[in-house]
Amino acid sequence: MKKTILSLLCCSLLVACTETYRPAYHHTPERNWMNDPNGMFYDDVNQVWHLYFQHNPYATVWGHMTWAHSTSTDLIHWTTQPNAIMPDSLGTIFSGSAVIDKYNTAGFGENAVVAMFTYSEKVGQIQAIAYSNDGGYTFTKYEGNPVLTADIKDFRDPKVFWNEATSQWNMVLAAGQEVRFYSSSNLKEWTYLSSFGEGLGCHGGVWECPDLMLLPVRGTEEQKWVLIVNINPGGPFGGSATQYFVGDWDGQTFTTDQTNTQWMDYGKDHYATVSFHNAPNNRHVVLAWMSNWQYADRVPTKHFRSANSIARDIDLYVDANNQYRIGVRPAPEMEAMSTQPTQALAPLAKIEVNVIRGTEPASITLSNDKGEQVVMTYDFERNTFTMDRTASGLVEFAREFPCVTSVELENKSEYQVTLYLDRCSIEAFDGQGLWSMTNLVFPTKPYNQVQTQGCEAKLYKIN
Ligand code: FRU
Q: Is 423's C-beta closer than 6 angstroms to any atom of ligand 1?
């Protein structure tokens, strides 16, 4: 009997892991629903990346929100760990962050991992903490919870960081269509500092999952503070997206001269982007939930729903209009993935494209023999790069899914773009790290042909 149950379990796990659209080198939940990445941190002693995520343990749609947990040593292969923080009488567990409390400021022990998250309950949203004395594998909820309440309906997603300049913890969280900043000396008592956002950036929807970090400006000694604010709906292609503001943070208030809205990615499946705490070598490593609230619960996967983007390293650069912009590149771990040059397009592929500016548009088309295709175009008149997934395969499961996403290009004589193809996604990265574009695709057979016009493509099979 035991043997039968065990083999049934193994069999269903195998089916779940090998299903058609299960990504091979992206993080996914073993089963059931996932949305935002949460509480990500790097354990520098054991050299392990910890990723928690919004998870429904019981179904492939949103509900019963729980912090599930995965770990990785290379940001490519992920090991499923037992769920980390479960709902209780205070509510279900919404998004948040985690820090390593090196100096035991909270009194939970030296190097305790302290997670701060939102309890969502019928009457509202409140902030709470939990601590781990085993490096982030098991958590104990703080008996004094909640640690922060307010009479605001959408009040969630605390992101905590250590402010070197003031030797204090700071926290940013979403409050309606603004963010609020707080400070604390012990992670338990929080003092309100200021709010940011009224009349600035995009306000097409609720602000969610903010993050604040100091980023280096490429090629200079300068650093600027960057406030990431995810927004849903209101994204440039409909639904969810990640906007950001570049400015200054003096430990009390965030200010910016930026007058326009800036987007961190120009695809339709890039949301809830936040950074890892304590990433090595002063890196700023981010992950995005690779979906969109418009159709996330209808995408045609069976045993699991949603994947995270590949890990990316971000910094700042100054663009041709003299504006600060977030620069994004695949994390070095992703670039170091084992690959092999090939003539034929493989289902797991990296494609390096070199484009020389011409009078006619240049294009790269990935297709299969069912006539399903994704067309990427450099249009030199409009100065845009676009990705058209309207005929990419299964597109009819949601009215909002078929689309063409677009990014404006700097005026250059030559461009490079690297494409990462997995079983249900294409991530395009500008060769200079100026922009990225992240889109889901569901071909009914893997794309196995590449056609280029006015450009050259080198194909690699990802092993
Ligand atoms: C963003 C979000 C968060 C919230 C979580 C709930 O996708 O709505 O604001 O904490 O998802 O699952």
A: no
